[in-house]
Amino acid sequence: MNETITSTNFKFPKQTSIYRGKVREVYTIDNDIMVMVATDRISAFDHILPKGIPFKGQVLNQVATMFLEATRDIVPNWLIGAPDPSVAVGYACEPVRVEMVIRGYLAGHSAREYALGKRILCGVVLPEGMKENDRFPEPIITPATKADEGHDEDISREDILKKGIVPQEIYEKMEAYTRALFQRGTEMAAERGLILVDTKYEFGIRNGEVILIDEIHTPDSSRYFYADGYEERQAKGENQRQLSKEFVRQWLIENGFQGLEGQTMPDMPDSFVDTITERYIELYEKITGNTFEKGDTSNINKRIETNVAVFLMEKGII
User: Fold this and answer.
1) Would you give the DSSP letter of residue 263?
2) CB under 8 Å to 110, separation ≥6 — which residues?
3) I need a labelling partner for 206 at 20 to 30 A (CA). Which of 10, 72, 266, 296 fits?
4) C-alpha dihedral over 58, 61, 63, 66, to 10 degrees?
5) Which of 156, 103, 149 is nearest to 130 (CA)?
């Protein structure tokens, strides 16, 4: 049985704080450097599921670092390096409290809202007569305010600016970066026979500059369809073949859980955990074109601690 990272409690030299998110645990070093551990936790409907998913953190970390390196020409980002399969190290930034969600297709949350009869999403007017998974005439940006706990909330561009959540100059820069990043992600996905359906980007401020932070184009932050057969499936009204976390959400819905009050998280059988691991590895191999090499999980916490400490020393950080 593979060991999973479900929680960590490292004590790195010059460590000043720890932040534990739904999936990542972030260690701040000397108030300026962040060590971001991608755990094997998995969340859906803003709830953490009861079991860790072997190699999920490694997949997320390695996909994200690949895309961060591949988009440095578009926007500066926080990443310094990845000293361990499940760890990224980068610069601390002041996070902008808005997630930039961009959608090329009517899928997921937008499709659920559309099915309820809503034709305006985050201030964006949606065309009439669309079917689930149809392509939008142009990608739409549907921002969300970033919540420390609980659900992120949809918000319009107008409200963001009116409430002064983000200054207009910074917001416009984030919007331009979002469209350029989505275009690059779309092109890279197409080369691998995939469609980048929707995704989200997070930005921070460092030395007055807008910086891309967190993960990008991973199965946790993005939805992918297989391009092959997309048109035929749409014409027949069939479900699309997709690589994303949506199948986990669907399993939860089928087992009576959508994160609503009074609902109980279902127990996940080991067979379903194995399925999730296989799907994450499938996405890694499909999107990168590389064979996934499983990290040594015999003493995973010790592995991370050693790799990070050596990296920080070599970089002169500690």
Assistant:
1) -
2) 103, 121, 126, 142, 198
3) 10
4) -130
5) 103
Rg (CA), the chain: 19
pLDDT in tens, 60-116: 999 999 999 999 999 999 999 999 999 999 999 999 999 999 999 999 999 999 999
Task: Please state, as a whole number, how many other Cβ atoms lie within 10 Å of the Cβ of residue 217.
Answer: 26
Which of 40, 64, 67 lies closest to 187, judged by CA? 67
C-alpha span between 200 and 100 (Å, rounded): 5
**Both tokens of residue 101?**
């969600």
Q: Which two tokens stand for residue 231?
A: 């048109």
- pLDDT, tens digit, 9 for 90 and up, residues 214-262: 999 988 889 999 999 999 999 999 999 988 787 898 899 999 999 899 9
Cα torsion angle, 202, 10, 50, 282, sign: positive
Q: What is the pLDDT of residues 290-304, one digit of tens each?
A: 999 999 999 999 999
Q: Strand pairing of 242-243 and 43-44?
A: unpaired
pLDDT of residue 22: 87
Q: List residues bridging with 209 in a β-sheet.
A: 206
Residues 17 and 26: their CA atoms lie apart, in Å, by 8
Q: DSSP strand E in 12-154: where?
A: 15-20, 24-29, 33-38, 43-44, 47-48, 79-84, 87-91, 94-95, 98-105, 120-121, 124-125, 135-141, 144-145, 153-154
